[in-house]
Write a structure and sequence with these properties.
The chain is built from eleven helices and ten strands. It is α+β, with helices and mostly antiparallel strands and 337 residues long. It has two domains: 87 residues; 231 residues, BirA Bifunctional Protein, domain 2, CATH 3.30.930.10. The structure holds 3,4-dihydroxyphenylalanine. 3,4-dihydroxyphenylalanine binds next to strand 9 and strand 10.
Length: 337
């Protein structure tokens, strides 16, 4: 019995200070191998009288188990250490971290929602170039040479008559040059203006343009399409108002307002106490535009509209600074997933 206690004490001292995996293997052979210390004790048990043999046999077998599990524990500890882990750092019962989930940008979401509604009204989606010529951005749209938007301070000119488009209305011209009416298209995209950046202005923003042309399109068709759009986008109880305005490419032209969906028209901070929110420009296509693309203005009529996506997204989500859209700060973007 005292020999068993000695072996046990020696083993415990040695195992707790063992620092190398190879050392463990050597210990296993030395204590538990065929010629091992404990093995020789077990073998000599037969020389003992019956009752002592039983007691010593039980103790020796207990020690054998203790040694086996001690060696396995030490092996786990040394393997973790070789991988740079600490026992306290590994809790295998903790749930894992999933990969972070992404989502669409609020501008993409807003453009998607606008497109979805017009597609349901039979519109087709089309895109046009962001680098454009003066012809498509201005001339064909009946914008005169002395119009302020043609000034170098109001448009990014690249070289000569090449520029970054200042609106998506250029796509109207590309579409009409390529096909004959009837058609109805929705044209989303980026536009550029050299505006000083502040809470409501950016040198780049997004617009969605609409165009429908046939032989008998009237202002009633424009109102009908926009009414369905506004109710679906901003709520069924939304009211609309058309204010007379001017755009060179439409005649007559209008600014379209919707009743404020925050205060329901009573007047609040967002609608500046007016009860109305301006959301787009619209009108009937000017005959001069049809002439520029070779359509017979006596035969065709159409409507067009253009809206700013950032402005609509800001109203819908209650965002007070346009710069938040472009900073890529996940603390902002996460809210829209
Ligand atoms: N292009 C105009 C702008 O950027 C918006 C616009 C107004 C587009 C009226 C249209 C329209 O198609 O009919 O300010």
């Amino acid at each position: 019995m005292s020999r068993i206690d000695e072996i046990k004490a020696a083993f415990e001292a040695e195992i707790s200070s063992c620092k190398r995996l190879e050392g463990l293997e050597e210990m296993k052979v030395r204590y538990l191998g065929r010629k091992g210390e404990l093995t020789s004790v077990l073998r000599s048990l037969s020389e003992l009288p019956e009752d002592e043999r039983r007691k010593a046999g039980m103790e020796a077998n207990k020690l054998k188990e203790l040694m086996n599990s001690g060696i396995e524990e030490a092996r786990t500890r040394l393997e973790m250490k070789s991988r740079g882990e600490k026992a306290s750092e590994m809790d295998v019962t903790l749930p894992g971290f999933g990969p972070p989930r992404g989502g669409l940008h609020p501008i993409t979401k807003t453009m998607g929602r606008i497109s979805e509604i017009f597609v349901s009204l039979g519109f087709r989606i089309a895109e046009g170039p962001e680098v454009e010529t003066e012809f498509y951005n201005f001339e064909a749209l009946n914008i005169p040479l002395d119009h302020p938007s043609r000034d170098g301070f109001d448009t990014f000119y690249i070289k000569g008559k090449t520029l970054l488009r200042s609106h998506t209305s250029n796509v109207q011209i590309h579409i009409m040059q390529k096909q004959k009416p009837p058609f109805q298209v929705l044209m989303p995209g980026r536009v550029y203006r050299p505006d000083a950046v502040d809470a409501t202005h950016s040198f780049m923003f997004h617009q969605v343009e609409g165009l429908m042309v046939d032989t008998d399109i009237s202002f009633a068709d424009l109102k009908g399409a926009l009414t369905l759009f506004c109710r679906s986008m901003f709520g069924e109880d939304t009211r609309m108002r058309f204010r007379p305005s001017f755009f060179p490419f439409t005649e007559p032209s209008a600014e379209v307002d919707i009743s404020c969906f925050i205060c329901k028209g009573k007047g609040c901070r967002v609608c500046k106490m007016s009860g109305w929110l301006e959301i787009m420009g619209a009108g009937l296509v000017d005959p001069k535009v049809f002439e520029a693309v070779g359509y017979d203005p006596g035969k065709y009529t159409g409507f067009a509209f253009g809206m700013g996506v950032e402005r609509i997204a800001m109203l819908l989500y209650g965002i007070n600074d346009i710069r938040l859209f472009y900073e890529n700060d996940v603390r902002f973007l996460r809210q829209f997933i």
